[in-house]
Design brief:
This protein is α+β, with helices and mostly antiparallel strands and 285 residues long. The chain has a single domain, classed as 3-Layer(aba) Sandwich (Aminopeptidase), CATH 3.40.630.190. Helices cover 31% and strands 31% of the residues. It contains seven helices and 16 strands. The strands form five sheets. Strands 12-9-4-5-6-13 form a six-stranded mixed beta sheet, sandwiched between helices. It has a four-stranded antiparallel beta sheet with strand order 1-2-3-16. It has a two-stranded antiparallel sheet with strand order 7-8. Strand 5 and strand 6 form a beta hairpin. The longest helix has 26 residues. The radius of gyration is 19 Å and the shape is globular.
Length: 285
């Protein structure tokens, strides 16, 4: 039961209070060739293939990184070609990005879908990145080392790779065409890449506070965000340089179903709600 507009909830006869000192930031990886401009003749190119919610918990000193599988079926805001709101439809959450301009409007519609999925969690900040820019951004920090968790294309399970150039893009984009859980396996590779990338950026930022701004400039042609330079500097200084924040990774738990040629993910509600409480609420004393 939600109480006082979500400031507390009652679950299994226990009261949980919302953590006030949390900063949610939504990251979207958009798999589309070229820059982030909407191609109205092919909206499928506008899917948000990577959906990750960051929850910076200032009190606990933790940055929670929550993977949101792109194939989760949930309420998505649907808009007409003229931009009029049609209503909410059950679709893959990745499709929310398709209803917009390929930039801020698409980000906001996806942000709204993720907020609804997370029981109307307020999310005000977003970053979207054209996945084709990963190679350039990755190379700007000298690449990262990963161990592949599966065999797919040129990558072999258990083998170590130093990702530079197009191999970085391949590692996060490729997926098998004949498995219903292919996207979840790809999510695992993306998580591995991201953990190594973040670790390297954190190390570089502690040596040079300008590192995040330099990466932002490099990412500019491939990205869209409402984070400005001052906010980035504040977050970097407060949570990377001045505090030893711990990164904790999790994923929205789902069941996988194959429907025709498409995979559909359905949230395991009890597990997800308990994860949600753990991340965003604390048990009342």
């Amino acid at each position: 039961m939600l109480g006082d507009d979500g400031r507390y909830v009652i679950y299994q006869n226990e009261r949980y209070n919302y953590k006030k000192d949390i900063i949610p930031i939504l990251f979207l990886g958009v798999d589309i060739c070229g820059d982030l401009v909407q191609d109205k003749n092919d909206s499928k190119k506008l899917m948000a293939d990577v959906i990750t919610l960051f929850a910076i918990d200032k009190e606990d000193g933790v940055i929670n990184v929550i993977n949101v599988p792109r194939d989760i079926i949930t309420d998505v805001g649907v808009y007409s070609p003229a931009g009029g709101f049609v209503g909410l439809e059950k679709q893959a959450i990745a499709a929310a990005y398709a209803y917009g301009d390929g930039r801020d409007i698409s980000c906001i519609n996806t942000e709204d879908a993720v907020s609804r999925l997370f029981y109307n969690l307020p999310i005000k900040t977003y970053v979207s990145l054209n996945i084709t820019g990963i190679s350039t951004i990755n190379d700007s920090i000298g690449g990262v080392d990963v161990v592949s968790p599966e065999t797919v294309d040129q990558f072999v399970e258990g083998e170590r790779y130093h990702l530079v150039g197009e191999t970085a893009s391949d590692f996060v984009r490729m997926r098998s065409k004949d498995r219903a859980d292919a996207n979840l396996l790809r999510n695992e590779r993306q998580k591995i890449f991201f953990k190594e990338f973040v670790a390297k950026v954190v190390a570089e930022t502690r040596k040079d506070i300008q590192t995040p701004l330099r990466i932002k400039d490099i990412a500019e042609p491939y990205s869209c965000t409402n984070l400005n330079a001052d906010r980035i500097t504040y977050l970097s200084t407060e949570f990377i340089v001045n505090r030893d924040m711990k990164f904790v990774y999790s994923s929205v738990p789902v069941e996988v179903a194959q429907v025709g040629d498409n995979a559909e993910n359905y949230v395991k509600e009890k597990e997800f709600y308990e994860l949600f409480l753990k991340l965003f609420y604390q048990k009342a004393k």
